[in-house]
Amino acid sequence: MMPGGMNPRQMQQAMKKLGIKSEEMMDVEEVIIKMQDRSLVIKKPDVTMMEVQGQKTFQVVGEPETVYGEVSSEPVGLVIPDEDIELVAMQANVSHEQARKALEECDGEPAEAIISLMS
Fold first, then answer.
1. SS3 of 65, please?
2. pLDDT mean values, one per 10 residues, the chain (119 residues)
3. What is the model's pTM?
4. How many Å apart are CA 99 and CA 111, to the nearest integer?
5. Domains in the chain, ordered, with CATH?
6. How does DSSP classify residue 23?
7. Main-chain phi, psi angles of 79, to 5 degrees
């Protein structure tokens, strides 16, 4: 039962009468929200598009990851935050390039990357 005592079917009918279209977008892999100094990357989000009076609104649900620096909007396999590279480089006493490579090999897991560099 939906809020206000309506079941989902009644809610859909009421939205249709008001001219509101709603569509779940099932094939979304990633949403990137770019800001001046950082980006929020939401992987495998639940996205719903609603159209009301010609205006489209998107609802994005998921766990955001904050990424500092430039984020490409091109499809990428693994996003490694700069602070993770800095942490691994500092803890393992290696260059940033070595830290990034270790993080890529450990699927972005800082603890695993540090352990692999120190052993």
1. strand
2. 70 82 86 88 91 88 86 66 90 92 90 92
3. 0.48
4. 11
5. 23-71 (2.20.70.30), 80-119 (1.10.8)
6. E
7. -100, 120
